[in-house]
Write a structure and sequence with these properties.
Chain lengths: 110, 458
């Protein structure tokens, strides 16, 4: 199976709430949504963000929007004005997740 | 009001945050049809900044940007009958009202009704509320409020749409509020114009989701978008406009001729922005279920949303408090050379060692060092850049001892003459400590938060 970055088959938007960030992932097709629902689990995203996210990752499903929503707790270095890191609002978390690599069945690729 | 209600109501949000482009509101009122314009000025910590401004100057403490915007758009709004709702009053509704009155007079306009909604600011009532049994435990950590009670600098309740509806019923052309849930500013005119009952939760949820979609302005018309190369004319990006129908369905669009893109992906991206549990999106007006949304492309730059379901709101309002949480300092320095990373590590050790010698040691857990250019934003996700020839050293600390932090600022420049070579970019002067504003989200019983609405004609 071809190894591609997530950005090839999905879009993402991320933001903050206190010291947590969320990443919304949108599958580019219904078949990709089913694939991501199986493969892109909370623990997988937790592992990808192991050096950034110090807390739990919770995943929510939005099949109507072909989307998954991940909430990453304790991922912003304290959040708000406490945080000294360059991205205290998790603005880049979505773009970062899109760089993870996955083995994707060739027929799913756009 | 249902008998003469318009077929569609056009609502646009002209300001996504305090400091957003002044071009947004101007283009929205000039370049296409709009019935209501909302302005969102308040991020989580904005009110603590306004509280500080008010302490220095009793006439400050609201979004002064709003007054400048009014100056530019009010004549057009009056001419076209566009009504304005803004959470611009911050922590000083009286001063905001005065500034609006002066602006209206300066512009030589008359017959304008200004509504002011207050009651969100509970800073002075905190002790009484605590005595009445409100715990104000931290929503994120569960901690009790005792730890920060004496250091709280602002406390504001996210109130809902109702007081804004009341101001509109009294004929207000401009409504200003303090803290209000962002989507409630968009929901209020829908309740007012369509006569939606406050227990028709599906419709309230639809209006809430409209508000969620437009609250960050162009983030739903192609801004901050993964497929940005597909977005035409980003410089001229149009702010979003919702065309709402009385049944709760609506179309997201933007004015003809503006740049940007409205398609299922740009709109879905914004639906997911700052989202928690999609089945339980809490607002003071209802609980909205994002998994009920049906979304379809309904023409060029037109996306239709329908089928939205909602439920009754919780018995509590959310409160956002801020408290003084010590200080922080952050200095930056450019480090060049194939061994830039080693140099920066050495420099950081030098700084912290010198502070210890000076008698102001900074404990390890309070230190901060980030080497921008080594893929810090992608840490662990893409391979670390092996030997970047230039990095930005970001060195700092947090703590209660302002003097020690200020010394850190003074020990950066000396590195240029006493450290490894290849250091530059030391401009803009010494880094100085600034106050850290802690964020304390909590809940409060609804019935204990009375709101006040005043409407007066100028």
């Amino acid at each position: 199976m071809p190894r591609v970055v997530l950005g090839k088959i999905a879009l993402a938007r991320s933001g903050d709430k206190g010291n947590s960030s969320n990443i919304g992932v949108i599958a580019r097709t219904p078949a990709i949504y089913e694939f991501l629902r199986r493969e892109l689990t909370g623990p997988v995203v937790r592992e990808v963000f192991r050096e950034i996210c110090k807390g739990e990752v919770t995943r929510y499903e939005l099949p109507n929007l072909l989307s998954l929503n991940f909430v990453l707790r304790d991922s912003l270095g304290g959040g708000g004005t406490r945080s000294l890191i360059t991205d205290p609002q998790g603005k880049v978390h979505g773009a970062a997740l899109l760089h993870m690599e996955l083995e994707v069945p060739a027929e799913l690729l756009p | 009001m249902t008998d003469n209600s318009p077929r569609v109501l056009r609502i646009a949000n002209a300001q996504g945050f305090w400091g957003d482009s002044q071009l947004g509101p101007l283009r929205l009122v000039q370049e296409g049809p709009v019935d209501y314009l909302t302005f969102d000025y308040l991020a989580e910590l904005s009110l603590s900044i306004m509280q500080k401004q008010k302490m220095r100057d009793p006439q400050a403490g609201y979004a002064r940007d709003f007054i400048q915007v009014l100056e530019n758009i009010l004549p057009t709004c009056q001419q076209k009958g566009i009504r304005i709702i803004a959470n611009a009053a911050g922590v000083n509704p009286a001063a905001c009202r005065d500034a609006i009155l002066q602006t209206v007079q300066r512009l030589g306009l008359n017959g304008i009704k200004v509504g002011v909604v207050s009651g969100d600011d509970i800073l002075d009532e905190l002790d009484a509320l605590i005595a009445s049994g409100e715990a104000f435990a931290n929503l994120e950590s569960g901690e009790t409020i005792d730890a920060v009670r004496q250091r709280i600098t602002s406390a504001n309740v996210y109130i809902g749409a109702l007081p804004i509806v009341e101001a509109l019923e009294q004929g207000a052309d401009i409504v200003v509020t303090g803290r209000v849930a962002d989507p409630s500013m968009v929901l209020a005119p829908l309740i007012h114009e369509f006569g939606w009952p406050m227990d028709d939760y599906d419709k309230l949820a639809a209006g809430t989701i409209m508000g969620h979609l437009v609250e960050c302005g162009p983030q739903c018309t192609g801004g901050n978008f993964t497929d940005w190369r597909r977005v035409p004319d980003m410089a001229g990006i149009g702010f979003p406009v919702v065309e709402a129908s009385a049944d709760g369905s609506f179309v997201v669009t933007k004015h003809d001729g503006t740049g940007g893109l409205v398609d299922i992906h740009t709109v879905t991206s914004q639906l997911l922005y700052e989202l928690g549990d999609p089945e339980n999106y809490l607002s003071p007006d209802c609980i909205a279920d994002f998994t009920s949304i049906r979304i379809e492309q309904a023409g060029e730059n037109r996306v239709k949303l329908s089928g939205i379901r909602g439920r009754a709101p919780t018995p509590t309002f959310k409160v956002s408090m801020s408290y003084a949480d010590g200080y922080r300092v952050l200095a930056t320095l450019c480090v060049a050379g194939p061994d830039a990373v080693d140099k920066a590590q050495t420099l950081a050790e030098m700084v912290f060692e010198r502070l210890a010698v000076l008698g102001s040691p900074i404990p390890e857990e309070s230190r901060f060092l980030e080497l921008f250019g080594t893929h810090v934003l992608y840490r662990g996700i893409v391979p670390t850049a092996e030997a970047p020839h230039e990095i930005l050293m970001r060195i700092g600390a947090r703590g209660r001892d302002r003097k020690a932090l200020s010394l850190l600022g003074t020990e950066i420049a000396p590195l240029l003459t006493s450290g490894p070579p290849g250091l530059t970019g030391f401009a803009g002067g010494r880094a100085r400590p600034s106050e850290v504003v802690g964020y304390w989200p909590a809940l409060v019983s609804r019935e204990k938060i009375p709101t006040r609405v005043t409407v007066e004609e100028i």
